[in-house]
Each structure stands twice: as C-alpha cells, then as structure tokens.
Amino acid sequence: MASSSGRKRIGSSSDNGGGGVIARVTSTVSDSPIFQKGVQSASGAADITKKLLKSTGKAAWIVGTTFLVLALPLIIELERDGQLDALELQQASLLGTPPPASAH
Fold this sequence. Notes:
Radius of gyration: 39 Å
Subcellular location: Mitochondrion outer membrane
Shape: rod-shaped
InterPro entries: Tom22, Tom22_pln
Membrane topology: Single-pass membrane protein
Structural class: mainly alpha
Number of domains: 1
Largest sheet: none
Low-confidence stretches: 11-16
Number of strands: 0
Number of helices: 2
Oligomer: single chain
GO cellular component, one term: mitochondrial outer membrane
Order of helices and strands: HH
Family: Belongs to the Tom22 family.
Distance between the termini: 114 Å
Mean pLDDT: 80
C-alpha cells in the first residue's frame, strides 16, 4: 500500500502559513500605507457628510416651521380676501348695482 504522507498538495494550508493567495494579497493590501490613508480619508469624509446632513436637517426644520408659522397664515388670509372680493362682485352683478371700486 502506497502512503501519500510524503506528498504536498498544491494550495494546502500547510505550505503557506494558513492562508491562500487571496488571503495573502488581502493582508498585503490592507497593511499598505496607501490603503490605510484611503480608509482614514473615507472615514473623515463620512463624518463630514454625517455632520452636514444633520445641520441641513436642522436648517430644513427651521425653515419649514417658520413657513408654517409666518407665511401660511398670510397665504390663507389673502385667499379669503380674494374669495370675499369675488363674492361681492358676484352679488353686485346679480343685484344690478355697479361693481365696487377697486381699492388697488
């Protein structure tokens, strides 16, 4: 009976320290200073983007609530005034009286 104990298999974990070619390339790339600098840059960019989105959200909240408190009631009042003018004009035309003079 022939024993295979003297043979090495290609790609076995015993001949390359426990990792394959991909593991060695990955560890070499992740240990490179260029890769580390890229990771730091990406992390910094992500932090800045997060802060920018947070402040943009706050600004949008301020603008939105200011619009609801100040501008929306004005728009509603102008619309009511326009409807009242249209109603007066319609009533005047039904009654046969001359339309009221415009205050503009």
